[in-house]
Amino acid sequence: MTEISKSEFEHKLMSNAITALSMDAVQAANSGHPGMPMGMADAATVLFAKFLKFNPKDPNWPDRDRFILSAGHGSMLIYSLLHLTGYKAVNMEQIKNFRQLGSITAGHPEYGHVPGVETTTGPLGQGISNAVGFAIAERQMNARFGDDLVDHYTYVIAGDGCLMEGISQEAISLAGHLKLNKLIVLWDDNNITIDGAVGISDSTDQKKRFEACNWDVIKVDGHNAKKVSNAIRRARKSLKPTLIACKTIIGKGSPTKSGTSKVHGAPLGAEEIIETRKAIGWSHDSFIIPDEVYRLWKKPGRKGRSEQKSWEKRLKESSVMTEFNRAINGILNEGWKKNMLEYKKDLVKTSPTLATRASSGNALKVLTSSLTDMISGSADLEGSNKTKTPSTESEIQFNNYGGRYINYGIREHVMGAAMNGMALHGGIIPYSGTFLVFADYCRPAIRLSAIMGIRVIYVMTHDSIGVGEDGPTHQPVEHVASLRAIPNLYVFRPADAIETAECWEISVERTSGPSLHALTRQNLPSVRDSVDKNESKLGAYVLRKSSRKCQITLLASGSEVHLAVAAYDKLNSLGISSKVVSVPCLDLFLEQDDDYINEVIGENLPKIVIEAGIRQGWEGIINRKDGFVGMSSFGASAPGNELFNHFGITTEAIVNKAKKMLDL
User: Fold this and answer.
1) Which of 488, 519, 550 corresponds to the end of one domain?
2) Could you give the C-alpha distances from 270 to 19, 227, 261, 495, in angstroms and in order?
3) Is 2's pLDDT higher than 70?
4) How many domains does the chain have?
5) Residue 139 belongs to what domain range?
6) Number of C-beta neighbours around residue 631 at 10 A
7) Does the pLDDT value for residue 1 go beyond 50?
8) Which of 181, 296, 453, 473 is most buried (most C-beta within 10 Å)?
9) Where in the sequence numbering do the catalytic residues fall?
């Protein structure tokens, strides 16, 4: 047997193992997508066996290559690869229990559940967009810490569905603009979707599309290991991101279903699996992998362990070792809390009247000067969002990856997804801004931030009818409520500069999930005169309270808190005692125990909620008999102050509702 034929024989063994495990696991689950893993088995084998830098014994070592399966429905591809290469957690029992309750081998790969899975790729297009964030993070960290510590690639396997989703256009255009040359996408060009051939719904020339976005494009036979290898080698030398268009046959090996949609989203069936085994020359029973195949698949991991040892030696000898370890482990710089306290003390002295978007910008000036891992950005709305600071003025461009500000352009979809990738990469705390009404563009990424439990911070300004003349299309009356409905997302709506600073403190310290700051366009007066402690940390607190026994509780968030304070004063002058509860984060407040919640709101008191949005979501605090001063319709086009009067969100409305509820 010649060396070449031996290499081809070993490749076939390794690739066939992926095919066998994938079709067997999907069949056992009676659910799943066997076609993509079978079709991409050859290309994935080349990538993992010859190029990918990884160590199964230490899946999280910082300078590993990142592999993202954007076509997450084909999850048995990555589970097969992780099992075969020696990730202990992905044992054969996990493969046999694919898609079953309690297993880590879920229908789509889930970050945090499976070592070796870098991100949760559920909705198509999110994975390739996460990858842009991974690639940005690699280049930014490389600029900070040098080639010795940060020098790795981001590889993606994407399918036709990933490229059809609109988010992918934002991703590839941003990546091409930034010349993220260490981003390599292997496109599973099999021409099949669930409903049939791609041609029934799309006629895009993907290669020209990527070229137009400043990518290198290489077209290969995805089943020819040598050509795939040469393409990856060429891509690694490119000065641009690279698309490798792997022409493949979906479900390759299946005698009657390969090349058709029948193998896309359903098991092959017992008889077809028997015939497939014959067709590919795999004589082993279900879930049986010969020792010879395991030995072949363990080689790449051993190479990765050797590379990691060399990297660890360089790290130990590096003058920036301590700072690198701090950053990559997500530990905040020392001294930042002291700086924030001094800033908040100044706010007490000056009592500024500011829009909370401006207050946010001021808080960020302090934070970004102290926290060197914060990377900012905006979807072409920096002047409105106030996300750029003196410390983040240097912009990340292809000739300046060491900057700290990203011009995302009008690309909210990829902005959210890329921030997820940056946070997952490590070493970066990403935050970026847009208008709150455009949260809908970011929603899939926000939801995935929450599912993965990662520190991503969304700055969303123009948070109510206070937007004014832009009209109802830009006035997010329902958005705060809908975002609060996302589990594990903290939605902050601060009332003044001090609360805004407190909410930022909570956000940067939170490592178990994302935060979203809903901020005003219009100026707001100060309502706080003390910074002895972070009052916002439990989500809500008593801001004003009558010395007499309270008769009613006024709860408000954001721009309506000062209206509640004014109503409190008016009620007090009328002999009606009340308390004002500021609720900067309803999500956080509802996490507290009943004792605290009842103490704050007054368990048996009638209540009025004041918020320039819809009532939905407040049911955990108020009942049908309680009052609500807010919106029940879309807004209108007029100056913001006129709209508050028009829609009855005023001090007078609060007072009148309180009097009516108390029969006074």
Assistant:
1) 519
2) 15, 33, 18, 63
3) no
4) 3
5) 41-250+295-310
6) 22
7) no
8) 181
9) 412
